[in-house]
């Protein structure tokens, strides 16, 4: 009888999904186990830019592709901000305000920044309805994936109702005027004139912020948050807020920050950005001393973070793509080997929308654009790396991570290290140069992960910018 009930429940869910049409009311009826440390150990994170993901730029269009993300090992989906965007001071390409553009055709193309939120408890109709959003959550949960929302705690857009109802929620100048965010190091504006800075000395505002976050956890069944510029928010706010949110359900919390104090204790974040690693990746692509740069970077991380602190490894994200360049622009011939390093290094790897399709242009940030949908080099590479990340304990990167062991091959152009957990060992060997390299085999008798052929030669021959993954169980 129990099996019959489960079958009927799954049949009902399947029928709901198959019969769904955009705009219809649907609640998340799919049961998914709470996110756990075990899930986090093997997870791949996917950042989706709904606006640019598809021609339609909608929740519904993305939902159709969720099952395909399973082949990339994705277990957590990070949605860039889904909230309504303020019309007042709406940013346009080039940095000016959209309302100052004379040509109505050009002006209407300017959709503004996702991070200028006008209402924390609504969805942007550009992306679809709340029912479309619920269907997306349902599809993710049905495919054993968790969904986290990009939360913007530091500021709101100028259309937010708090601007008029509660101006005391905002930072004000000496004349009582609400201001945009200030760089604490310089005392000058960051240049984010499309948003108004929130004042965290106001505890009523803090309570309202918590209430809005609880809405998405309790009413819409999301699984956590990626918190924008989290280090600029007082630590005690995060301690009390995350504790309260986790009293409702198990959540995954990602901070856009690198400060180690944000991942200390059970009432703070699970993961922070590997910003220094990312910057090191960019340097490695252009340096003759890439292995040395990596060893310095990982050494700093192993000393300043505790063993159960999780770092997000990434070669691209929405900011990097739009403002600093595509993966190929920044990493050139090192694109594949550094992508592999982002999966083999301790932590959790990130895939950004379009990375899997060899995205070759900088996505427009303030207006509609579109990622390609043709599988070339990156999809099979990411698929192979994800299988290893999902299934081999030697790549565990959560609260109980696999060990990291440096290997010195006495070759300044070749990087090598082991990841080890229990009886599982993965060895990464990579040539960071334009010339072929021959090195002693650091894992004799292991199998090559890609070819599944035993490596029984004493010498490994590496072509330029190539890597080998050697498996020993």
Protein model, in words:
This protein is α/β, with parallel strands linked by helices and 473 residues long. The protein has one domain (2-402): Glycosidases (TIM Barrel, Alpha-Beta Barrel). Helices cover 31% and strands 17% of the residues. It has 16 helices and 17 strands. The strands form four sheets. Strands 1-2-3-6-7-8-9-10 form an eight-stranded parallel β-barrel. α10 links the parallel β6 (224-227) and β7. α9 packs parallel to α10, α11 (275-284) runs antiparallel to α12 (290-304) and α15 runs parallel beside α16. The longest helix has 18 residues, at 2-19. The protein is globular and about 70 Å long. The two termini are 41 Å apart.
Keywords:
473 residues; alpha/beta; TIM Barrel; 31% helix; disordered N terminus
Set out the fold topology.
Layout: H1 2-19, H2 37-41, E1 44-48, H3 50-53, H4 59-63, H5 66-69, E2 74-79, H6 104-109, H7 130-142, E3 146-151, E4 155-157, H8 162-165, E5 195-197, H9 203-218, E6 224-227, H10 235-246, E7 252-255, E8 271-273, H11 275-284, H12 290-304, E9 310-313, H13 318-324, H14 327-331, H15 335-344, E10 348-352, H16 378-391, E11 403-406, E12 414-421, E13 424-431, E14 437-440, E15 447-448, E16 459-462, E17 467-472
Parallel strand pairs: 1-2, 1-10, 2-3, 3-6, 6-7, 7-8, 8-9, 9-10
Antiparallel strand pairs: 4-5, 11-12, 12-13, 13-17, 14-16, 15-17
Helix pairs in contact: 9-10, 11-12, 15-16
């Amino acid at each position: 009888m129990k099996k019959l009930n489960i079958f009927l429940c799954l049949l009902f869910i399947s029928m709901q999904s198959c019969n769904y049409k955009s705009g219809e009311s649907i609640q998340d009826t799919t049961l998914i186990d709470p996110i756990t440390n075990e899930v986090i150990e093997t997870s791949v994170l996917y950042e989706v830019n709904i606006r640019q993901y598809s021609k339609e730029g909608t929740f519904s269009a993305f939902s159709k592709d969720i099952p395909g993300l399973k082949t990339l090992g994705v277990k957590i989906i990070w949605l860039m901000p889904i909230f309504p965007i303020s019309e007042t001071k709406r940013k346009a390409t080039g940095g000016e305000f959209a309302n100052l553009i004379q040509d109505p055709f050009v002006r209407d193309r300017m959709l503004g920044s996702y991070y200028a939120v006008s209402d924390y408890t609504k969805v942007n109709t550009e992306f679809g309805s709340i029912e479309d959003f619920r269907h997306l959550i349902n599809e993710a949960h049905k495919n054993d994936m968790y969904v986290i929302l990009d939360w913007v705690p530091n500021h709101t857009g100028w259309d937010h109702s708090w601007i008029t109802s509660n101006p005391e929620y905002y930072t004000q100048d000496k004349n009582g005027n609400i201001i945009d965010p200030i760089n604490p190091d310089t005392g000058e504006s960051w240049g984010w004139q499309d948003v108004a800075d929130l004042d965290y000395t106001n505890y009523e505002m803090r309570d309202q912020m918590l209430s809005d976050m609880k809405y998405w956890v309790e009413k819409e069944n999301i699984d956590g948050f990626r918190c924008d510029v989290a280090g600029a928010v007082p630590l005690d706010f995060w301690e009390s807020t995350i504790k309260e949110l986790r009293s409702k359900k198990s959540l995954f919390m990602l901070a856009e920050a690198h400060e180690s104090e944000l991942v200390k204790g059970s009432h703070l974040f699970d993961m922070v950005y590997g910003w220094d690693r990312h910057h090191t990746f960019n340097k490695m692509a252009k340096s003759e001393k890439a292995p040395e740069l990596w060893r310095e970077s990982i050494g700093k991380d192993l000393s300043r973070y505790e063993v159960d602190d999780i770092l997000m490894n990434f070669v691209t994200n929405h900011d990097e793509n739009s403002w600093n360049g595509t993966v190929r622009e920044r990493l050139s011939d090192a694109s594949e080997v550094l992508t592999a390093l982002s999966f083999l290094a301790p932590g959790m790897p990130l895939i950004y929308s379009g990375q899997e399709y060899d995205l070759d242009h900088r996505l427009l940030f303030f207006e509609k654009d579109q990622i390609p949908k043709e599988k070339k080099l990156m999809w099979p590479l990411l698929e192979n790396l994800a299988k290893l990340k999902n299934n081999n304990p030697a790549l565990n990167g959560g609260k109980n991570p696999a060990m990291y062991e440096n290997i010195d091959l006495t070759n300044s152009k070749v990087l090598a290290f082991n990841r080890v957990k229990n009886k599982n060992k993965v060895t990464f060997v990579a040539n960071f140069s334009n010339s072929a390299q021959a090195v002693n085999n650091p894992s004799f008798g292991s199998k090559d992960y890609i070819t599944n052929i035993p490596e029984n030669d004493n010498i490994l021959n590496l072509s330029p910018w190539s890597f080998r993954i050697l498996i020993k169980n």
